[in-house]
Design a protein that fits this description.
- The protein is of the alpha+beta class.
- It has 19 helices and 21 strands.
- The strands form five sheets. It has a five-stranded antiparallel beta sheet, with helices on both faces. The protein has a five-stranded antiparallel beta sheet with strand order 11-10-14-13-12, sandwiched between helices. Strands 16-18-19-21-20 form a five-stranded mixed beta sheet, covered by helices on one side.
- β18 and β19 form a beta hairpin.
- Helix content is 50%, strand content 22%.
């Protein structure tokens, strides 16, 4: 009590002397004003960093999208090279690829490292017959692409034909032998245009691109030097093969400081003025009383303004009890969002308005606030309206502190983001639809090249046997067999036509298929190979094995796996193939087991389903069958697993989705 009394006595003495009270007030307001100004400086600085972060993320997305499109073009170009290393239709396809992808300037085919095909040829003739593997400045990055067997974006570097560009080289392998490169060239000015740097920079920001040299490890910069690079906000941009870095820096890094300096000077003047006013007012108690009355009226007016803003705010605002979670007060918008009246809301707590699956997260955050770990939080959560509808809101909760004893009340702000979320979901759905469309087009091209080739091989084999037949009965049996193959070929063409007809649509035709029916068709197609190999086929397929699948894909999957089981049989023993179907977690699993030569899984397991990955010396093996079937199963929501041992055999398990 004595200590408190002595403290009050000191205050009284200070304010009993107007000059001393003025100095004390001046220092207090200077401290308070500069503290608020410092907080404002921090907020402005954080906003600028956030803006630069958003810009750099947009640049990153633009660059990654451009290079991803370039990869698709390089892959399409590589498909022009056939199994013999010949280039088909370059003059027809290359213009379509370049004209259809404005982010690509030039495409090249580089067999053995020597540039032989270029489009457009005009302006690029100097590079014809140029060997990039003999150029010291180029062969390092080219060899890296060969080692990784993935596309590698080299450069930017100066071109022989003039200009600076980034070159993406996709190594092409035929039967595991390096053939050359499929290359795309993006001029630096085109890449910068696609990144949006010039548009985003305006006059406020500067940008810089850099990349580590593969040979020296030195960081190389490609844009004009920018000032204050050490003060810049930077972010690593991960490309398909290398880490690049994009820097962003403000053209005027001291802009915020210059903005607050006048305010700081104003605070100093204001604090001096307030100190002077207080000292003068203390000299005039009567005027002070009058001023207090006036300020009280202004306070009431301020409260009235606050109440008006509170009630008419465009977002929902509520005041809650920190301990019980009860709603103490709400504005009009809060009630409109939930469909309750203000009186009804005061009888509820926040948990009664929260979706059951989101209650725990909200509760945990409230506990962290009550414990002093955080003072505010923002989450997206679902709410239950009075009519039972579910809405999605952005919730921001902050504390109201009283006498430094801890939070007694909270302020909750809610903003309805249901429509925004639906728009995001629709956008993601559209993106997924485009990706699925591309996958179907790719699978269709594989079916055309692979399945029709299988039918043509069967027809050729039957015709050869027909020519060797000695009796009319034997010839008649081959004619009948040829008729079945023709019917199957016609069915395949029909299925492929169905696939073509839906390419403009986003839904693959999926229908219930009896696996036993399609297995019978496939075994009829392979009858000649089965008889020639004297293979033993055992079937344990339940009659009720019905799966939802695309008909063309089902024929392709069964034909690939069974033909592989026959083709890679062990010459030391008679081929035996077991085809069975079992249930696994309500899904059907089709197993195809053989006693063939087997696969070295330790050596080839990771590459088993890769494109052009062949694991035998057979000249008929193109490395496409497993790749096709894996993609077809993935497109249908299924998956493929494999177990194999060299010299024992292989078991493929096809897991069909419901």
């Amino acid at each position: 009590m004595k200590e408190n009394k002595s403290g009050l006595d000191i205050v009284r003495k200070i304010f009993s002397r107007p000059g001393l009270a003025g100095i004390f007030s001046f220092l207090f307001f200077v401290f308070l004003g500069y503290f608020v100004l410092w907080q404002r400086f921090q907020i402005l600085n954080e906003r600028e960093l956030q803006e630069m972060s958003n810009i750099i993320n947009l640049v990153e997305n633009n660059v990654e999208q451009s290079l991803q499109n370039s990869y698709s073009v390089a892959l399409s170009l590589a498909l022009l090279v056939d199994d013999e290393g010949n280039i088909d239709n370059f003059e027809e396809i290359a213009p379509q690829l370049v004209d259809g992808n404005p982010n690509i300037d030039v495409v090249q085919l580089v067999p053995g490292g020597i540039i032989t095909k270029v489009y457009p040829l005009e302006g690029n003739r100097e590079v014809i017959n140029y060997n990039i593997l003999q150029e010291n400045s180029l062969k390092g990055e080219a060899n890296k692409a060969i080692e990784t067997r993935e596309i590698y974006f080299a450069g930017p570097f100066e071109l022989r034909q003039g200009g600076i560009a980034v070159v993406g080289r996709l190594p092409v392998f035929i039967k595991n032998e390096f053939w050359g490169f499929s290359a795309v060239l993006i001029k630096l000015e085109n890449l910068l245009r696609q990144s949006g740097i010039k548009k985003l920079a305006g006059g406020k920001y500067q940008f810089q691109f850099s990349k580590k040299d593969v040979l020296t490890g030195e960081e190389i910069f490609f844009l004009p030097e920018i000032k204050n690079l050490n003060k810049s906000y930077s972010k690593s941009v991960t490309l398909p093969d290398e880490d690049w870095k994009v820097y962003i820096a403000s053209t005027n890094p001291n802009e915020i400081l210059f903005l607050i300096l006048p305010v700081a000077f104003f605070i100093l003047i204001l604090a001096a003025w307030l100190g002077w006013v207080i000292s003068k007012e203390l000299e005039q108690p009567a005027k002070l009383q009058e001023l207090l009355k006036k300020k009280a009226g202004e306070l009431v007016q301020s409260e009235l303004k606050f109440r008006t803003i509170f009630d008419q705010a465009a977002i929902g605002i509520a005041r809650l009890d920190s301990i019980s979670g009860k709603i103490l007060e709400t504005n009009v918008k809060f009630g409109e969002l939930l469909g309750y009246t203000a009186e009804e809301l005061t009888r509820l707590d926040y948990m009664q308005l929260t979706h059951p699956e989101d209650i725990q997260e909200d509760y945990n955050n409230m506990q962290r606030i009550n414990s002093g770990e955080i003072c505010e939080y923002t989450i997206n959560k679902r709410i239950i309206k009075k009519n039972g509808d579910i809405g999605l809101v952005k919730l921001t909760v902050s504390t109201l502190w009283k006498k430094w004893l801890g939070p007694e009340e909270h302020v909750a702000l809610i903003e309805d983001i249901t429509e925004k979320r639906l728009s995001e979901l629709n956008l993601n759905k559209s993106y997924q639809m485009v990706m699925d469309q591309n996958k179907r087009l790719l699978n269709f091209s594989f079916i055309v090249s692979h399945n029709l080739r299988s039918h043509s091989s069967n027809i050729q084999a039957i015709l050869n046997l027909y020519e060797l037949a000695n009796s009319e009965d034997e010839k008649e049996s081959y004619v009948q067999l040829l008729s079945k193959v023709g019917v199957a070929l016609d069915q395949t063409l029909f299925d492929l036509n169905e696939v073509v007809s839906i390419q403009a649509n986003t839904d693959i035709i999926v229908e219930p298929l009896l696996v036993s029916d399609y297995l019978k068709i496939t075994l009829d197609l392979l009858r000649v190979q089965i008889q020639k190999k004297k293979a033993i086929i055992r079937q344990e397929i339940p009659e009720e094995m019905l799966v939802n699948f695309n008909a063309a894909y089902m024929e392709s999957v069964l034909l690939n796996f069974l033909s592989n089981a026959l083709r890679y049989s062990d010459h030391q023993r008679k081929p035996e193939i077991l085809i069975s179907g079992t249930r696994e977690n309500e899904n059907w699993v089709l197993e195809i087991s053989d006693n063939g030569i087997g696969i070295d899984m330790d050596r080839h397991g990771e590459q088993l389903f890769g494109m052009y990955k062949s694991f035998t010396d057979s000249p008929k093996s193109r490395g496409m069958g497993l790749f096709i079937t894996k993609n077809q199963m993935d497109a249908m929501g299924g998956r493929v697993t494999v177990e194999s041992q060299v010299g024992i055999g292989t078991t493929f398990k096809l897991h069909f989705s419901i």
